[in-house]
Specification:
three-stranded antiparallel β-sheet; 4 helices; Immunoglobulin-like; about 160 residues; four-stranded antiparallel β-sheet; alpha+beta; 2 domains
Length: about 160
Amino acid sequence: MWDDNLFVTVIENGLKQIDELFALAGEDDTGEEAADPCRRPGLGCRLECYRAALSIFPVPACAQRKPPYFDLVDARALSLTSVQLTFNRALDVPTAQTVGNYALEPAAEVHSATVPPAIDHLVVLDTSELARSTTYLVRVTHVVSNDLVPLNPSHNTGAFTTR
């Protein structure tokens, strides 16, 4: 047991030494270890874990296994020319804003797909005019999350009804 400020002094110096040691290894965290952080954590992630544990913070994102998929969780008509899609993860903006990744049934044209700033799990589709009081199905393909998790093929469709 460390009394007074000795713990802080020892830990600060110890982390500084670990930083210096890891810097000599020259590893970056973008290789194989980044794909499987539980079995092969990168050195930078190990440092984040040490700091989080010492601060009693939760396990950092770099040390958590990515889920195999993410889902489309809601679709709703905002108007007769606008549809909002909600996902359960932040989206990769380029794939989310690619118009060809969305299809509506009955057929309607998607003119644009926009991820609103600061709301990274939503997409707003601007469409050709939709029929009133009609149920549509939207199918999403080739959209990935911001950490490159693919969309679940079993949860890539949503139904909505226009007013």
